[in-house]
């Protein structure tokens, strides 16, 4: 087959490759991720029997045909395509983007790239593997729970992109934090590799950390701020303490009032009014203006003790 085609183009290597591309395009060849198993003369079986395969089948067949008529040729393996991750502002290339094509040696031109897959399934080259095999549904058929299967749903697709971004930074800053990156860290953040300077920087950082944590600890342990009503009542209690009557721990306002009235009858009426005001404003709904008025009244009565 190759010899006859080579004779038809009068031994012109460039025209021979072009005719092979036309042959793949015009004959009934199919791009598939479910090729049949080939045994024996696999190139013959592919070219003349199954006519079904993916990029490696077509690249391998073209290289075999070119070599059979004396044209140097080789299979090249790499990646074709990818996906733009807008969260990372990068192109993500995955294993299913792997691709095989061919290079042939043309006199006075050197190695020339030829991709026979483009003649059979241009969608694989111009768009994506997913589109090229959409009819047979073989894209990621072995990964039912892959997030890529749901990339048509905007919310899930964006979440997938963000997870990919987190995974990328985890690999970059944790798993791949080797000696070279560590030295770069010291250089960028601590000004160099000098051990004295590094230790000084670490000491400053540790001091700042301890200071911040200590300040936060003291701030979190501060006594809770009292409302104006409670502050006014406690001022009243403080005045009574100076006159020899101290409020007991856990003693309620009414019990304290009754004890003060017994021990100091001359201020009984004032203590009663203060206690009633405190209970009224502290345990019943009251506006801000009303609370302010009660606070002023409590303070005024407290001065009479």
List the helices and strands and how they pair.
Layout (H helix, E strand, L loop, with lengths): L1 H7 L4 H14 L3 E2 L10 H9 L1 E2 L1 H14 L4 E7 L3 E3 L4 E3 L5 E9 L3 E5 L2 H4 L1 H5 L2 H4 L21 H22 L3 H12 L4 H26 L7 H15 L10 H11 L4 H16 L4 H15 L3
Parallel strand pairs: 1-2
Antiparallel strand pairs: 3-6, 4-5, 6-7
Helix pairs in contact: 11-13, 11-14, 12-13, 13-14
Explain what this protein looks like in three dimensions.
This protein has 305 residues and is mainly α. The chain has helices at 2-8, 13-26, 42-50, 55-68, 117-120, 122-126, 129-132, 154-175, 179-190, 195-220, 228-242, 253-263, 268-283, 288-302; strands at residues 30-31, 52-53, 73-79, 83-85, 90-92, 98-106, 110-114. A 3-stranded antiparallel sheet has the order 3-6-7. The protein has a two-stranded parallel sheet with strand order 1-2. The protein is rod-shaped, with a radius of gyration of 43 Å. The mean pLDDT is 83.
Short note summarizing the structure:
The protein is mainly alpha-helical. Helix content is 57%, strand content 10%.
């Amino acid at each position: 087959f190759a010899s006859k085609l080579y004779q038809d183009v009068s031994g012109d290597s460039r025209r021979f490759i072009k005719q092979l591309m036309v042959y793949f395009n015009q004959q009934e060849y199919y791009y598939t991720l479910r090729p049949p198993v080939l045994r024996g003369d696999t190139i013959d079986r592919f070219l003349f029997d199954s006519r079904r395969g993916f990029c490696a089948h077509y690249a391998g067949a073209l290289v075999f045909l070119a070599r059979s008529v004396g044209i140097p040729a080789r299979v090249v393996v790499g990646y074709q395509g990818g996906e733009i991750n807008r969260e990372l502002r990068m192109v993500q290339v995955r294993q299913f983007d792997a691709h095989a094509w061919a290079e042939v040696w043309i006199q006075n031109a050197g190695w020339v790239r030829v991709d026979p897959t483009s003649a059979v399934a241009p969608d694989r080259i111009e768009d994506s593997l997913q589109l090229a095999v959409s009819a047979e549904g073989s894209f990621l058929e072995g990964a039912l729970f892959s997030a890529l299967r749901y990339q048509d749903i905007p919310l899930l697709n964006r979440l997938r992109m963000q997870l990919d971004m987190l995974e990328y930074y985890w690999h970059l800053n944790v798993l791949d934090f080797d000696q070279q990156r560590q030295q770069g860290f010291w250089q960028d953040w601590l000004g160099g590799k000098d051990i004295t300077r590094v230790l000084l920087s670490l000491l400053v950082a540790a001091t700042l950390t301890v200071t911040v944590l200590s300040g936060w600890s003291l701030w979190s342990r501060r006594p809770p701020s009292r409302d104006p009503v409670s502050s006014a009542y406690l001022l009243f209690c403080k005045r009574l303490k100076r006159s020899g009557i101290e409020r007991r721990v856990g003693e309620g306002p009414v019990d304290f009032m009754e004890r003060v009235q017994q021990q100091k009858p001359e201020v009984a009426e004032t203590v009663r009014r203060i206690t009633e005001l405190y209970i009224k404003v502290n345990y019943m709904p009251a506006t801000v203006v009303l609370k302010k008025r009660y606070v002023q009244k409590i303070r005024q009565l407290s001065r009479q003790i």
